[in-house]
Amino acid sequence: MKVQIQIEKDCTETQVIIITxxxxxxxxxxxxxxxxxPLSVLTGIQDEKHILIKPEEIFRIYADRGKVWIQxxxxxxxxxxxxxxxxxxxxEKQFVRISHSEIISLSKIVNFDLSFSGTICVNCIDGxxxxxxxxxxxxxxxxxxx
Length: 146
Hints:
Blueprint: H1 25-36, E1 42-46, E2 49-53, E3 58-64, E4 67-72, E5 75-79, H2 83-89, E6 95-99, E7 102-105, E8 109-113, E9 120-124, E10 129-132, H3 137-144
Antiparallel strand pairs: 1-2, 3-4, 3-7, 4-5, 6-7, 8-9, 9-10
């Protein structure tokens, strides 16, 4: 087996290409592990500049008016991916989908307020609030052990 790594300064997204004579179970397993590897950075756009954003910096990712936004301590960044694409890239132990239009970082949550009937209010460390849609309430309750 031959392994080749190429580093390019202008690269915005890591690509892995597997060239093989036959598709074996071990090659499929390797490809599956690479695809599930947690994302190391996302590229957000702010003032026409592309900024690298580490997952641990993210408070939440949400869709609004046809655009997807990443909220961090440093500000708000637009990203040119769909929420479904981003959700597939993020570590499911660190990020959770709370509605059709929002993903939150579990490490940036102060508490979950279950006092509202049927919904859950999520209070983040930056003071912002989000609400879990009814469709995602069972998933959040499972995470909370409720």
